Amino acid sequence: MYDKDSRSDAGTNNNYGIYLSDAFGNKELLYRDEQISCLDPIPVKARPVPPVIPHLIAVGKPLKPGEKFVAPDPKTIPDFGTVGLINVYDSIYPMSDLPKIAALRVVQLLPKTTPIANNPRIGFGDQKSARMVLGTVPVEDDGSAYFKMPANLPVYFQALDAEGVAVQSMRSATYVHPGENLTCLGCHNSPTAGYRMNTTAPMALKRPPSVIKADVEGSKPFSYKILVQPVLDKNCVACHQKGAAEGKKCPDLTQGELKQNGDFFVSYNALRNFTFFWDNASFDGVPDSRPGQIGARKSKLFQMLTKGHHDLKLCKEDMHRLTLWMDCNSDFYGAYENLIEQKEGKVVCPSLQ
After folding, report:
1. Which residues, other chains included, contact 69 with Cβ-Cβ below 8 Å and sequence gap of 6+?
2. Are the CB atoms for 121 and 261 separated by under 8 Å?
3. Which stretches within the chain are classed as H helix?
4. Tens digit of each residue's pLDDT (9 = 90 or more) over 80-128
5. Which one is the CATH code of 76-206: 3.30.70, 2.60.40, 1.10.10, 2.30.30?
6. Within the chain, which residue ranges are assigned CATH 2.60.40?
């Protein structure tokens, strides 16, 4: 215990000291410092030296005693790290009754370059970050993946089925330092469960790391004008215009007139109630990501197209463009600047990446 000195000759220096106390209230002074109070003693006990964890990144390596700092040659610093996923099916919510996972989509979140929230508004969601799709990497039959990832970029992953449609999605972000080896145990695996050792190494870790494969035009940088509007013009606009002329309730899926501000296309606004996006006021009050309940798979548009919509037959690429768009929060813009150029279909690279 610790207590103040109650002796009559203690003087004005009444600092706390460390005492040994028994059940009868007797106490014996063990230690006192005349300059400062002594509180919260910690027993000291000899213990084995903890294991030395090797340095895992290519920059910022700690110096040894007496060693002088020498700036590394930028040419020797890799611009990537590696990511190893042990088992994508190791998840809090079961994924066994859903399609088999065939790939991971890597999506980069972009730093905001404008000071005011929702100015510009990137899409339907509230106070959202712009993003772009870096591409996909394969997932092995045992649920493992291993790939190179660009360093120092905030990204999140989506687990995709064989058709490239998201089954599960991260709701947070991660990144790698140059030369770092990052390992994930699962896709939203339990934070309280320890790693279960397998008798064999994951299949993906037995081979060299995969290289991210870029996706379709309009996904990097992201652009509704390039990614989605051509699909609508090719497959939907004429039929919807014909139906509207006949008095039917057909959403207007045309682009509409370009306006000199951050407004969206007529088609984009018309699809709001048929698509999917994360938002504080939407998604039925469920803030987390549950397998099969996110992205295109959760949208009315995807369900309508997969069941059959009149005589519409989308080719595989056109269907992929729509599902990719909805999996990525149904965004419109891919950067915070040059909005008119983006609406005109020009490739606008974000000023900060």
Report:
1. 63
2. no
3. 224-227, 229-235, 237-245, 266-270, 300-307, 316-327, 339-343
4. 999 999 999 988 888 878 999 999 999 999 999 998 888 899 998 887 8
5. 2.60.40
6. 76-206
